[in-house]
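Chain A, query sequence.
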Amino acid sequence: MFLTPDLEVDEHLTLRPASKGVLAEMLEAYHEDSQAAQTALPWLDPEDDIRRQLRDMLYDIESQHGTDRLHFWSIHTTDNGQFVGLVGLGDELQAPQSTYNLGYWVRKGHRRNGIASRCVDVVFSWLTQRPELTTVEIAVHPHNDAGLATAAAVCERWNGERLPEFIGIEFNERTVPHHLHLVDVRRSE
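Chain A, predicted structure.
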C-alpha cells in the first residue's frame, strides 16, 4: 500500500505517479495560467526559476516514493496522454490529527469539467483500502472560489467538514488565512 499506484479515473482520465517526466508539460501549463498555478502551488516564488522549482518538487516526490509520506499523481487524458494537472496527498499538515493534506491543480483548458473532484474521489477510494482511518485536510484560501467549491463538494460526498475558524499558513515569510476542511476516510467494508 506504500507505493503510489496508477489509478483509472474514468474512460477519459488516468492518474500516474508524478515523476520528472511531466516537467516540460507542467512548465507549459504553468505559463498558460501562472496565477492559477501560484494559487495551487503557493510556495512557488515567481521571482525565482520556475522550471527549477517544479523540477525540485518532482524530485522530492520521486525521492519519497515508497515511504507513504507523499502520494502525488499527474492527471492525463486516456486518448493521447496529455498532461491535465496534478492531484496529491502531501505532508504539510495544519491539524494534529491529519494524515495528509490534499492538493490539486487542473490545467487551464480543462477546468470547469469536474476533473479535480473526480480525481479526488478516486484517490479517496484508494485510501479506503487502508486498515486505519486516514484524515485528509484541504486548506483553501478564502478568495479561491473554485477551490472552496471543490472542497465543499468533496466534504459533502465524503462526510467531511469545514472548520469554523481560519488557520494561518506561512508562505514566503507571511501568514495567509485559509479555510481548513477535514475528511476522515474510513476503510470500506
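The CA atoms of residues 75 and 84 lie 5 Å apart. Helices lie at 23-32, 34-40, 50-63, 115-127, 145-158.
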